[in-house]
Amino acid sequence: MTDGFKLPKDLILGDSIVTITGRSDMTVENYRGILLYEDSQIRLSLKHGQIQISGTALNIEYYTNDDMKISGRIDKLEYSF
User: Strand 31-37 vs strand 17-21: parallel, antiparallel, or unpaired?
Assistant: First the structure.
């Protein structure tokens, strides 16, 4: 269906989009909620699973109902269902 209408899959399916810039900035679109927020770990609930960000001095710069920006030293990303 997404191919027929030429619409982005994230819009139709509600999939999350994770954009990482270097090792210090990250944006997450279409997340569901914040499960854990510490300076060394952030865990987010997504429509299809969870994502855990590990690092040093992690900080949520901003968040809205649609997206968020995380900064700090990002060492590791883990995605799970």
Answer: unpaired
CA-derived radius of gyration, the chain: 13
pLDDT, one tens digit per residue, over 21-47 is 999 999 999 999 999 999 999 999 998
- DSSP letters for 2-58: HHHHT--HHHHH---EEEEETTTEEEEESEEEEEEE-SSEEEEEETTEEEEEEEEEE
Residue located via tokens 């809205």: 64
Write down the pTM of the prediction.
0.83
Q: Phi, psi (5° rounding) for residue 77?
A: -120, 135
Residue 3, C-beta contacts closer than 8 angstroms, at least 6 positions apart:
none
Determine how many CB atoms are found less than 10 A away from the CB of residue 38: 9
Residue 4 backbone phi and psi in degrees, to 5 = -65, -40
